[in-house]
Design goal:
By secondary structure, the protein is α/β, with parallel strands linked by helices. It has one domain: Alpha-Beta Barrel (TIM Barrel). The protein is about 45% helix and about 10% strand. It contains 15 helices and twelve strands. The strands form three sheets. An eight-stranded parallel beta barrel has the order 4-5-6-7-8-9-10-11, surrounded by seven helices. A two-stranded antiparallel sheet has the order 1-12. It has a two-stranded antiparallel ribbon with strand order 2-3. Helix 10 runs parallel beside helix 13. Bound molecules: ligand FNR.
């Protein structure tokens, strides 16, 4: 099967998944403690974020998806326009199709030509040579490079990779040669604390945990098999919320993607420590559902507006201040935390003042505001 055909299959099967998804995931097991006097004024709220030396005007990005065929080139053009119109960052899909067949370069280059001043990320897998990674970065004048890890996708893929041992040393080589920050990401199965710690040692600038709860590539690849005999790999891995909890305090900046459905999920992920939050399948669905670029621009604008509104209610003048909000962890996610040694009581009480301060101090500490 040609690489272009595979890219078209991924889009088609990811869209089928969007329609079939139950709508529930583990973000539902994270809730904010409501403090009725915590609110601040909307003009005092900013969406700006900074991580790994990168600053964005909003903590949201269109995550890696596609390129490599005529159809997916048109999708990249539309995604790039939406990123430009809303001022959020965007990632390319895997650029291996370009290494194999440079005639498809325009299907990736369009990400830059339509969005000359935006923050654009190139995307390769962990078998790319350092030279190819540089070619990918150069083609779209990328501001950062994503390297994707996808063992649970490769395994059921008939033509998939079966050799994973070289990935860690190759990430280190690519990171040393890239010349831009390297963000290592999963594709929907999540990164464990141990993986994030390893990535920090390999020279990654940040890790995008991209956990379970949204697009499921084991399911997509199983759907491409004649016998579909890998159904038991569906829903493999840890949820995005679980990954953020697992990898807090590793020291490596974290990004969050995987099953982000609403502005509340964005706020939850930021409160769990993500520097920014990405969406792929959900944004693609909005684009392809009939409304095209205007629908996606409207959706992203609404999300940004509502995220600012949530920050106002929660008393968080910046996205980073959301990490001071009290969070309750419920259900299976709570069991995960217990077994992984994650202290959920601390999360539920982190806005509390020290015992010596008075009630006015308590409120200001709770809201993160200064006098
Ligand atoms: C993806 N994803 C992806 N990731 C990556 O690093 N390189 C890639 O080429 C692709 N290709 C791709 C195609 C399509 C159609 C989709 C929907 C997704 C994975 C993506 O970046 C993200 O990690 C997961 O999709 C989880 O996020 P969502 O979709 O649940 O928001």
């Amino acid at each position: 099967m040609s690489s272009a055909q595979r890219k078209d299959d991924h889009v088609r099967l990811a869209m089928e998944q969007q329609y079939a998804h139950s709508g529930r995931n583990q973000f539902d097991e994270v809730s904010f403690v409501h403090h009725a006097l915590a609110g601040i004024d909307r003009p005092d709220v900013s969406l700006g974020t900074a991580f790994a030396g990168i600053t964005w005007q909003a903590p949201l990005y269109i995550n890696a998806m596609t390129g490599g065929s005529a159809k997916t080139g048109a999708i990249n053009r539309d995604l790039a326009i939406a990123a430009r119109e809303t001022g959020i960052a965007i990632a390319s899909g895997s650029m291996h199709a370009y290494f194999k067949d440079p005639s498809c370069a325009d299907t990736f280059r369009v990400l830059r030509t339509e969005n000359p001043d935006g923050f654009v990320m190139a995307n390769v897998n962990a078998t790319a040579s350092a030279d190819d990674a540089r070619r990918a970065i150069d083609l779209i004048r990328a501001d950062a490079l994503q390297i994707h890890l996808n063992t649970a996708q490769e395994t059921p893929m008939p033509e998939g990779d079966r050799s994973f041992a070289s990935w860690a040393p190759q990430i280190e080589r690519i990171a040393a040669a890239a010349g831009v920050p390297v963000i290592v990401k999963e594709v929907g199965n999540g990164l464990s604390r141990q993986t994030v710690l390893a990535l920090a040692g390999l020279g990654a600038a940040a890790a995008d945990v991209s956990g379970r709860g949204g697009t499921d590539f084991a399911r997509i690849e199983n759907g491409r098999r004649e016998l579909a005999d890998y159904a038991y790999l569906h829903d493999w891995g840890q949820s995005t919320a679980a990954c953020l909890l697992d990898a807090q305090d590793t020291g490596l900046p974290l990004l969050a993607s995987g099953g982000v459905r609403t502005p509340l999920d964005v706020a939850r992920a930021l409160a769990l420590g993500a520097g920014a939050v990405g969406s792929s399948g959900g944004f693609l669905r909005t684009l392809l559902d009939g409304g095209g670029v205007p629908a996606l621009v409207a959706k992203i604008s609404t999300w940004l507006d509502q995220l600012a509104a949530l920050q106002t209610m929660l008393g968080a003048p910046t996205p980073a201040h959301l990490t001071r909000c009290d969070l309750l962890i419920h259900g299976e996610l709570r069991s995960f935390c217990a077994d992984r040694g994650i202290d959920t009581r601390r999360l539920a009480q982190r806005s509390s003042p020290s015992p010596s301060s008075g009630s006015a101090d308590a409120l200001h500490e709770m809201t993160g505001s200064t006098r």
